[in-house]
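Dear U.,

For the methods section draft, I wanted the exact inputs and outputs in one place so we can describe them consistently. I've listed the two proteins in the order they'll appear in the manuscript figures. Please don't edit the token lines directly; just add comments below if something needs changing.

First protein:
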Amino acid sequence: MSDVSADLMPVEEFHRVAAAILDEIAQVIVGQDEVVRQVLIALIGGGHTLLEGVPGLGKTLLVRTLADVLDLDFARIQCTPDLMPADITGTQIIEEDEGGRRTFRFERGPVFTHLLLADEINRATPKTQSALLEAMQERAVTVGNARYALPAPFFVLATQNPLEMEGTYPLPEAQLDRFLFKINVHFPSAEELIAIMARTTGAATPQAHTVADGAQILAMGALARHVPIAAHVSRYIAELTLATHPENAPQGSMVARFVRYGASPRGAQALVLGAKTHALLAGRYNVAFEDVQAVLYSALRHRVILNFEAQAEGISADAILADLLDRVPIPLEA
């Protein structure tokens, strides 16, 4: 603890704020504890998140609840095939002053917010997706010859439906790679479904209250980046990342048979940032192997590109990553 700079948020404050955020979200969202935790890890890590699940699982509600709990400006884009880039970034409009002179004024689009929900992102055309890609990567928007910075913090939480493929434009690998995490939202259990029905069909609707703000999220992210990571843990992350590539795959692994291309260096960065934040949430100021394993699926499942044989046999990226966890040895401490 003595290594923590006085300018950083105290570790105890990190724990208090994180627990308050998780508790407040639980007042609205039934179950999905691991999903909520992974989303919070991504936000603290300063990255964008892709939520995948069938309709009705509360993905949009989760994003709205996050905005309420964190007191962040919130905007929603409902992606459709006719959505244009200007509908996201904004556009130049002509104004006439009192002297009759015409000038251009930039009317900002919904991307100028703290928390942007891109609902059903795979329904937007590639041209519109590319406009969102610039905002995600550069935290800025270019319109004409002018560049406009986005507010800080800026997070994109996008959703997509894994079942409905008609009228969709699958996200290209380059854009998928810009998401720090891809989180699968699963169907609730019977007990959770009963709780959802009770909570949403009664006279009173649960409401989330603000317990943190954007400045605190940025401060939590700054602290997370200062969490030390030992050399042998870094090597484990590097070896896991390299093992997702067929040419570096362990002997007999599923990667060699079912993967066309493995994770990029951004995957390794996502593992490091996610593991550091997970360690803090677990009450430790150092990264352990279990922290890496806890965020492995969210950080890499969208970065492992499967080949046709995997798709034909119904092999998922999660199954391949689970196989890698069994095959990549944990390095000994130097």
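Second protein (the one for the lower panel):
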Amino acid sequence: MRYEEFAPPQALAPYVHCLWVFEGQDAREPQRIVPDGRCELILHWRAPYLEQDGAGWTPQPRALFAGQLTRPLHLLARERAGVVGVRFRTAGSAVYLQSHVNAFTDRRLAVSDAPDLRKATDETERLALAAGYVASRLEPRFHDRQISRAVEELRRSGGRVPLDALASTADLSPRILQRRFLQAVGVPPRMLASILRFHRVFEALQAPGVTSWTEAAQVAGYFDHPQMARDFRRFVGCTPSEFLAAERGLASHLAS
């Protein structure tokens, strides 16, 4: 299997973090997709994944918008995967949606007007079709620059900025910040801070000299291992050891 990220075209850069490609035979067991603080446009050019819901396992649409996650998403590959993803900046997807983002949190919505990547001849064309489609829908008046500043400060600090300081960064009152943050990002500031801290664990595991989950938890800003374990249950639905023991696939690439 192969996973690779690509810088967005200049016109998309203010709103899109990256484009990515995943292809090949994914793991044979369900993949736990964890919250990462960003929304995505997902375009399948091979068989779409199965998604676990209340009815069991249901095929995803060939093209879908995936809102913010606050809990794990379980996916299963039926055949060889072929996916192009457009990963928006944390406060960037409203420009594509042309609406408030919180209406899509923990939801995946079919996108009927997206290009059919099965008609593309190669990866370059698939990426160009995905980028061109997003560019055609951009409405910059939906970009909340004050909230973007607050998000950047929150990311820079690893989620450790108090709400009052965050509001000052955005030049907003705490109450207005929270309302507009939810609309532009899809989750409240405190939830995003928790997600960012949780993701720092995976980053810490790749740092020199970090050899255990306990050390990674300390680097990420947790008080102790049990506090990190609670977030694993919340965002992944299992223990750190169970996550590592699972067959590696799409989930391991998206979590790192």
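Candidate sentences for the figure legend, describing the second protein: Residues 189-205 form the longest helix (17 residues). Residues 2-141 form a domain with the Jelly Rolls fold (CATH 2.60.120.10).

Thanks,
Y.
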